[in-house]
């Protein structure tokens, strides 16, 4: 007969293995989610399955994506952190235009917050998964239904080159810049600024996307409390003001971050 100590050890080992197996199963189901893609495109042929198209008061949309733009970067505060109050443009717009024409919203991004997953999530409406993180370095084309394909063309893009991997041949003009050197705060942003104000007056685009990376790279390299972050936020503030002065009254301006940063 087995001794009581041997039985106790066998029970302990069995229980431990069962606990490990259960933990791994829960982890796989909750953390390493499987993402299924539907490659069908909504053609709006059946009205009940299509959103209602309405006449919009704007002919064009400018979408400015400031990577890692935190909500507290955009608001005024009486605290003393160096990164605060460096982008008063949103407050100034609300005062000048009124709340009826300006809105400021806060959202929390689902992890993972790498660029490819955030773009994919925002423009397809799907949830990003951690299993997709490896694809951030070799982005494949988005084949499922998405906002850009629904627009049907007349799109100009400039900024993070991840976009051209996700949406090849979707842009009538594109100005991509390399994005993976997190020590480089200026190449992408300066590249966008070199083209942005030449593109805004043109009449052949419906959507203009400009994706700035400097704030995100500054956060990775220095953190939000470094003086470089204050300079980068001030640059973005001035850029937004210049865009407002350049665009016409038939254009809608959207400014957003793709995620925040600790």
Automatic annotation (TrEMBL):
Subcellular location: Endoplasmic reticulum membrane
Sections of the chain in a coiled coil: none
Main localization, broad class: endoplasmic reticulum
Annotated protein name in UniProt: Uncharacterized protein
CDD domains found in the cross-reference section: GPI_EPT_3 (cd16023)
Keyword tags: Endoplasmic reticulum, Glycoprotein, GPI-anchor biosynthesis, Membrane, Transferase, Transmembrane, Transmembrane helix
Single Gene Ontology BP annotation: GPI anchor biosynthetic process
Membrane topology type: Multi-pass membrane protein
Pathway terms, separated by semicolons: Glycolipid biosynthesis; glycosylphosphatidylinositol-anchor biosynthesis
Gene3D superfamilies: Alkaline Phosphatase, subunit A (3.40.720.10)
Presence of the UniProt keyword Transmembrane in the record: yes
A GO molecular-function descriptor: mannose-ethanolamine phosphotransferase activity
4Fe-4S found in the keyword field: no
Native species: Ciona savignyi
Pfam families (alphabetical): Phosphodiest
Protein family membership: Belongs to the PIGG/PIGN/PIGO family. PIGO subfamily.
GO CC annotation terms, alphabetical: endoplasmic reticulum membrane
Transmembrane segments: 6-27
